[in-house]
Design goal:
Layout (H helix, E strand, L loop, with lengths): L8 H20 L6 E4 L4 H4 L14 E5 L2 H18 L3 E2 L2 E2 L2 E3 L6 E3 L9 E5 L1 H9 L9 H6 L2 H8 L2 E5 L4 H7 L5 H18 L2 H7 L3 H22 L7 H8 L5 H13 L3 H22 L10 E3 L2 E5 L3 H9 L4 H4 L7 H4 L3 H4 L2 H13 L4
Parallel strand pairs: 2-7
Antiparallel strand pairs: 1-2, 1-8, 3-4, 5-6, 9-10
Helix pairs in contact: 1-3, 8-10, 8-14, 9-10, 9-13, 10-11, 10-12, 10-13, 12-13
Length: 367
């Protein structure tokens, strides 16, 4: 059988719900109050899927949200009915997912038997707690914001809600749409602080003949600038696979990309530093246009008495921190959200681990 023309995953999932899942829900439990969405993990949720995505965990998928009581009463029956009665394909794509031997990974395959479907039946609170470590329907505190990786926040607020009969998904996603203002200033300040801590090392490594070390530092700074631009655009930075794709959609990408690319391609530290300097000045000028603080001189300058050009990005950290009015946010350590100081997939994909790390940082004695 020839593969169908590529259909973006969110549209495929919408049709799967409307044409296949919703009629069977109505048949199983007439008048069943439910919500349905395609949110969470998956390239299609962020809008970055291509035909390549179909090789695993991509296809006709949907979350069906029920009340805990309805899950207890009807969940198993609905799951069995879907397995027995779902069409074998939707828009030319199989609805059956064969196990690959890797935990949780499935691949679309034709079947003549029951459908091993990817309709997740859950309740909203349980789903949010499993993804984020908290239920936004019960409020979102400072610790919740800081312990939620931006990838998870992006996955939760992107995608599509096809039906919200429970009335829970819309308010929860709206509550997570973006950081509260003072916390946004804090996260921006912490991102500038990351840049300030390493911007002089590109030249220092190069000065001692360590061009490889200089290039590694430059790559870290490029990544931090890309994440900073996304934060300034009020977009949650995704994880590494999609960072460049997301950055390309920011307001400054067209101007910055040539300098960031040249900094990464440079074979000597002087060229590397020069392109990074132009990038710093561009992003600092963007900061000024946001008018979040009094204007900050965006020009690079010498690093004290050493022959390196830097922005002294801590100046922007100080300017942003000075505008924070919430005493609790002002008192936060200059680390920021969890993925500004943790770079471990094992931590960032486990809400309980991310929350434990953030709690430890917040509870640590101050300087």
């Amino acid at each position: 059988m020839n593969a169908p023309s590529f259909l973006p995953g969110l549209e495929l999932c919408r049709r799967f719900y409307v044409e296949a899942v919703r009629p069977l829900l109505a048949e199983a439990v007439p008048g069943l109050v439910h919500s349905a969405a395609r949110i969470g993990s998956g390239s299609e949720v962020l809008g970055y899927d291509t035909a390549r995505s179909a090789d695993h965990d991509w296809g006709p998928r949907v979350q069906v949200f029920l009340s805990p009581e309805d899950i207890d009463r009807h969940g198993e029956r609905i799951d069995a009915l879907l397995s027995e009665r779902l069409p074998k394909s939707v828009c030319g794509y199989p609805t059956h997912f064969a196990a690959t031997g890797e935990t949780g990974i499935g691949v679309m395959r034709a079947t003549d038997g029951p459908v091993r479907h990817r309709v997740e039946i859950t309740d909203p609170s349980a789903w949010f707690v499993a993804r984020l470590g908290f239920d936004p329907g019960e409020g979102v505190g400072t610790e919740d914001w800081l312990a939620a990786p931006t990838q998870r926040l992006a996955e939760t607020t992107a995608g599509a809600v096809f039906h919200d009969g429970l009335g829970r998904l819309g308010p929860a996603r709206a509550a997570l749409d973006w950081y509260p203002h003072d916390l946004w200033l804090h996260v921006l300040a912490c991102q500038w602080q990351r840049i300030s801590q390493e911007e002089a090392f590109v030249g220092r490594c190069g000065e001692v003949g360590d061009e490889l070390g200089s290039a590694v530092v430059a790559a870290r700074l490029v990544r931090d600038l890309m994440r900073l631009c996304l934060l300034m655009d009020r977009r949650y930075p995704p994880y590494g696979k999609w960072l460049g794709s997301a950055f390309a959609r920011t307001s400054e990408a067209a101007v910055l990309t040539p300098h960031l690319t040249a900094a990464l391609a440079a074979t000597d530290w002087h060229t590397r530093e020069s392109h990074l300097g132009r990038a710093y000045e561009t992003v600092a000028a963007l900061h000024n246009r946001l008018a979040l603080t009094d204007p900050v001189d965006p020009a690079t300058r010498p690093y004290h008495s050493r022959p390196f050009r830097v922005l002294h990005a801590e100046r922007l950290t100080a300017a942003l921190t000075a505008r924070i009015t919430d005493p609790g946010v002002r008192a936060l350590p200059v680390g920021g959200a969890v993925d500004q100081f943790v770079d471990s997939t094992e931590v960032l994909t486990r809400p309980e681990s991310a929350r434990a790390v953030v709690r430890a940082v917040l509870d640590a004695p101050g300087p």
